[in-house]
Design brief:
Family: Belongs to the class I-like SAM-binding methyltransferase superfamily. RsmB/NOP family.
Number of helices: 25
InterPro entries: MeTrfase_RsmB-F_NOP2_cat (IPR049560), MeTrfase_RsmB-F_NOP2_dom (IPR001678), Nop2p (IPR011023), RCMT (IPR023267), RCMT_NOP2 (IPR023273), RsmB-like_ferredoxin (IPR054728), SAM-dependent_MTases_sf (IPR029063)
Largest sheet: 9 strands, mixed
Number of strands: 15
Helix content: 40-55%
Protein name: SAM-dependent MTase RsmB/NOP-type domain-containing protein
CATH class of the largest domain: Alpha Beta
Keywords: Methyltransferase, Nucleus, Ribosome biogenesis, RNA-binding, S-adenosyl-L-methionine, Transferase
Number of domains: 4
Bound molecules: S-adenosylmethionine
CATH topology of the largest domain: Rossmann fold
Shape: globular
GO molecular function, one term: rRNA (cytosine-C5-)-methyltransferase activity
Distance between the termini: 105 Å
CATH superfamily of the largest domain: Vaccinia Virus protein VP39
Length: 682
């Protein structure tokens, strides 16, 4: 029976598909057909599949437009995808006609001239899709369109449907290439995931075609995706979805009054955002929450993004052997593309491109430069070691900063180079030899005991072991491997090391008495908290680092309240300074006496009462050089009788005359001793 013929005996059971179809014309264009939205409407599984495909096509088209606009894909490639669309559509059309005919043949319910499956509400969406596609094709192709249609004549004996299927399969392999490529870019990533799904969707069609037209090799039909491929596909789709939600939630949080859902609190949004950021950037909840506490939203995203990107390769000229200009010239003649690193350094170079490995050039092997992140220059510049001085590098391996210290000291005086890790010390020895450093002594101690071994240093550098939260781009394992206890452990060790560093330094050293503390962590517990602890426990004060850039350290941070002079410390971030996250503090030691616990308490109280004085002191820009700083501090420095630091010796309790103390302090002291007495009794 033909599709237009009617059975005169047929009983009409209700409105035919045509009338139902007319009702649907009133639907909005972007109406999405799901059983949920229209529970009574019975939708065939085929219609659902087609609706899904339409969605995929739309997404692919959108991604394609984005990727093309951002020049992430070439015109030829864009064209090939669009052609795949066209071919796939043609196959689909022919397939539908065939299916209609089959249905017609099988069905005896043919009161209307349309098969049931045809009223699948596609038309409006199809029009929209066709419009988008035409627009995209127009935009994409422009004048450069290369017409490669050559389907007038088929190969020997090939039916048109076979030919088209083959073409689709060819295009599919092009799509697969795109899908399998690596990408960091969002639009390209979108395009890939959509292309992948689209490709998969048409793979099934290709299999179907092959079942009918069996003269296409079986291996070309459908390749079952591997577990890895499926995983990759799911990850890509999932990531795109999460990324979009992050953007949406950030948009709401940035204009909360207007954009919020009144039913939801800010906390609800923040919780969703935190989870999504953890998933998208692969952090554990602990670390991400820490970063969320530290940065405002937009800065947080910038920080997380910066952690996904490698820092520029930078090198430091070894002025013991060459000049920066000569080194640059030598490397340029080897085809290296480089530039001076920044205005703040006269020895740094940034390397953009190199045809030879930058760690294996003759200049490198001859020790003309050190490959060193820009952030590693900073603490040594703050330390400002002078020729002829006695300097200690407490945690030195592999010796990047030590070699810089040596060159600033013009290979004179002494550098004591220590590290607890013997294996890492081998790298120090290698670097010293290569760089021609001859003023160093290498030791292998736990630096916490260093004051009992040696003292009397003019300057001490403590580049402390840390959680590495500033160098995530170098070591992404930090994202998931650190928890609260790691940070606490680091902080504890750092506090012990900083006291040892201060105790190894001689407050009376000529032009010296400086300690630089630094970490490649951005955690407050490892930075400001450690510095604040040292301020309480020893006779040191913070001075300016002499660095022109970096952001001030925290004086107030959540539950913490630090000494106001903490603003003299400097923080460096990957997203604002394009260098690893870093923290630097410079102390001036003004007495070799180690305060007793009573003194510490007293010191704490005095500090609280003289807060404002310290703050104005800290803000004084004239403290930018060592000499200036020392002059300033010497005015405040109490008279010393003990010129020679003997760190092993325990300092005696320093009893000051009660009469000179402010009444407030003595009152507090009384209270403390009262409390002690009460404790003893109880
Ligand atoms: C951040 S790295 C130092 C990097 C080095 N300053 C440089 O620029 O090449 C920290 C170093 O501290 C060392 N370290 C850890 N605990 C130590 C301790 N208790 N005493 C001495 N060194 C220690 C580690 O072995 C590690 O080499």
């Amino acid at each position: 029976m033909g599709r237009n013929q009617r059975d005169p005996d047929r009983v009409v059971r209700g409105p035919g598909p045509k009338s139902r179809r007319q009702k649907d014309l009133a639907m909005p264009k972007n109406y999405d057909i799901t059983e949920e939205q229209e529970p009574n409407k019975k939708i065939s599984s085929r219609a659902k599949v087609r609706a899904k495909k339409r969605d995929l096509k739309k997404q692919l088209l959108t991604s394609l437009v984005e990727a093309k606009a951002e020049k992430k894909v070439g015109l030829t490639f864009a064209n090939s995808i669009l052609e795949t669309f066209e071919e796939a559509d043609k196959i689909e059309e022919e397939d539908e006609i065939k299916e209609e005919e089959t249905l017609q043949l099988l069905s005896d319910d043919d009161s209307d001239d349309m098969p049931d499956d045809e009223f699948d509400l596609d038309d409006d969406d199809d029009h929209v899709e066709a419009e988008i596609r035409d627009r995209v094709i127009g935009e994409m192709r422009g004048e450069d369109h290369e017409d490669d249609s050559s389907d007038d004549e088929g190969e020997d004996g090939e039916l048109p449907i076979e030919r088209k299927t083959k073409q689709v399969l060819q295009k599919r392999s092009q799509l697969s290439k795109l899908v399998s490529g690596d990408c960091n870019d969002n639009s390209a990533q979108n395009l890939r995931s959509h292309a992948y799904l689209f490709d998969k969707s048409y793979s099934h069609r290709a299999v179907k075609e092959n079942n009918i037209q069996t003269n296409i090799a079986e291996t070309e039909t459908f390749v079952l995706p591997s577990g890895q491929e499926i995983e990759k596909e799911n990850t890509l789709l999932f990531k795109n979805h999460i990324h979009q939600r992050i953007k949406d939630v950030v948009a709401v949080l940035s204009d909360f009054g207007n954009k919020r859902d009144p039913e939801r609190t800010r906390k609800d949004y923040v919780n969703v955002l935190r989870k999504d950021l953890c998933t998208y950037y692969s952090y554990n909840d602990f670390l991400l929450s820490k970063f969320m506490d530290m940065f405002p939203l937009t800065e947080l995203i910038a920080f997380l993004e910066a952690n996904e990107v490698n820092r520029p390769i930078t090198i430091r000229t070894n002025t013991l052997k060459t000049k920066r200009r000569d080194l640059a010239q030598a490397l340029i003649s080897r085809g290296v593309n480089l530039d001076p690193l920044a205005k703040w350094t006269k020895v740094g170079l940034v390397v953009y491109e190199s045809p030879v490995p930058i760690g294996a050039t003759p200049e490198y092997l001859a020790g003309h430069y050190m490959i060193q992140g820009a952030s590693s220059f900073v603490p040594v510049m703050a330390l400002a070691p002078q020729p002829g001085e006695r300097v200690l590098d407490m945690c030195a391996a592999p010796g990047g900063k030590t070699t810089y210290i040596a060159q600033l000291m013009k290979n004179s005086g002494f550098i004591f180079v220590n590290d607890i890790n013997k294996a890492r010390l081998k790298a120090v020895v290698g670097n010293m030899h290569r760089m021609g450093v001859s003023n160093s002594v290498i030791s292998n101690y736990d630096a916490r005991s260093f004051p009992t071994i040696m003292g009397n240093f003019s300057r001490v550098l403590l580049d402390a072991p840390c959680s590495g939260t500033g160098v995530i781009s170098k070591d992404p394992s930090v994202k998931t491997s650190k928890d609260d206890s790691d940070i606490t452990k680091c902080s504890h060790l750092q506090k012990e090391l900083i006291l040892a560093a201060i105790d190894s330094c001689n407050a009376q050293a000529q032009n010296g008495g400086y300690i630089v503390y630094c970490t490649c962590s951005v955690m407050v517990e490892e930075n400001e908290e450690v510095v604040n602890y040292a301020l309480k426990k020893r006779n040191v004060k913070l001075v300016q680092t002499g660095l022109e850039f970096g952001v001030e350290g925290f004086c107030k941070y959540r539950q913490y309240r630090f000494h106001p002079s903490l603003k003299q410390t400097r923080r460096f971030y990957p997203h604002s300074h394009n260098m690893d996250g870093f923290f630097v503090a410079k102390f001036k030691k003004f007495s070799n006496k180690i305060p007793s616990s009573d003194d510490v308490k007293e010191k704490q109280e005095v500090k609280e009462t003289v807060t404002d004085e310290s703050a104005s002191d800290a803000a004084d820009p004239s403290t930018s050089t060592d000499q200036d700083t020392e002059d300033k501090t010497s005015k405040k420095r109490p008279k010393e009788s003990d010129d020679n630091p003997t760190p092993v010796k325990k300092a005696k309790t320093n009893k000051k005359k009660q009469g000179k103390k402010k009444s407030k302090i003595s009152e507090t002291k009384k209270e403390i001793s009262e409390e002690k007495r009460r404790e003893k009794k109880s």
